[in-house]
Amino acid sequence: MRKAICLLSGGIDSTTTLYVALHDRYDVHALTIDYGQLHAKEVSCAREIAKNLGIVHYVLPISLPWKGSALLDDQIPIPKGRDRSQMAESIPSTYVPVRNTIFLSLAMSWAEAEGADVVFFGANVQDYSGYPDCRPEYLAAFTRMIWLGTKAGREGGKLISIETPLVQLSKKAIIQLGQTLKVPFEKTWSCYQGLEMPCGECDSCRIRAHGFQEAGMEDPLMQHAVASVG
User: Fold this and answer.
1) How far apart are CA 143 and CA 123, in angstroms?
2) Order of strands across the sheet with 161-163?
């Protein structure tokens, strides 16, 4: 089987991407980065998802002491109550400086060490919150940089690719795909707030809710949360 590294945050996009890789019959290893995010519940969700699948999973702790993001500093407000047009106006305070470059570099390092063929990454440009490091042109440039800066690329050996199967899909289409692949959405986490229950108002919660609404489905996470409270 071909080997793959999949970045797994514990959210809908990364979890669906993981299930795509498994469906495509890759021997998948999952990598979760614990970078000090205030919404640390996503890390525990990633652990449970990987454990239930029985796949190799690393949770790699790193430190970003300079913070610079609402996801790392509780003194920086997290945007709430915005519609999609407002989300697209500017890069939000939840942007973590160079986060995806850091994550992809770590995934590529593991991939080269393991002799993997591909890194799967759940980037998406249709329903994104203005993040510049989710765009196809960024991913193409990053891939070229990796080919220039690795032993495999320098010696003309195995060139590791980045697969982004969701990059042009709407959240509705991602949820529909995930339903087909039997993704356990109730085990995923999207909320940016560091709480036990989704806030329902941050950009990520609103994008998630809109996706399920457009797909004509109820969010099983919310059903599960209500049942737990009851």
Assistant:
1) 14
2) 56-61, 27-34, 3-7, 118-120, 161-163
Across the chain, the runs of DSSP E, i.e. the strands, are 3-7, 27-34, 56-61, 118-120, 161-163
Q: Residues 199-221: what's their mean pLDDT?
A: 95
For 172, residues 6+ apart whose C-beta sits below 8 A from its C-beta are 211, 214, 215
Encoded tokens for 18: 């993981």
| pTM attached to this predicted model | 0.94
Cβ-contact 219, 208 below 8 angstroms? yes
The amino acid at 134: C
Q: Residue 194 has what pLDDT?
A: 83
208: helix, strand or coil: helix
Q: Can you say how many angstroms the Cα of residue 182 is from the centroid of all Cα atoms in its chain?
A: 18
The stretch 166-185 carries a mean pLDDT of: 97
Measured in degrees and rounded to the nearest 5, phi and psi for residue 65 equal -65, -20
Task: Catalogue all structural domains in the chain, each as residue range(s) with its CATH number.
Answer: 3-229 (3.40.50.620)
> In whole angstroms, how far apart are CA 193 and each of 147, 167, 215?
37, 25, 25
pLDDT tens digit string along 49-94? 999 999 999 999 999 999 999 999 999 999 999 988 888 888 899 9
Which structure tokens are listed for 211? 């996706």
Q: State the DSSP code for 162.
A: E
Please check the confidence at residue 227 and state whether its pLDDT lies above 90.
no
3-state SS, residue 16: helix
Residues 144 and 34: their CA atoms lie apart, in Å, by 26
Residue 41, token pair as written in the block: 């519940």
Q: Measured over all CA atoms, what is the biggest interatomic distance in the chain, rounded to whole angstroms?
A: 60
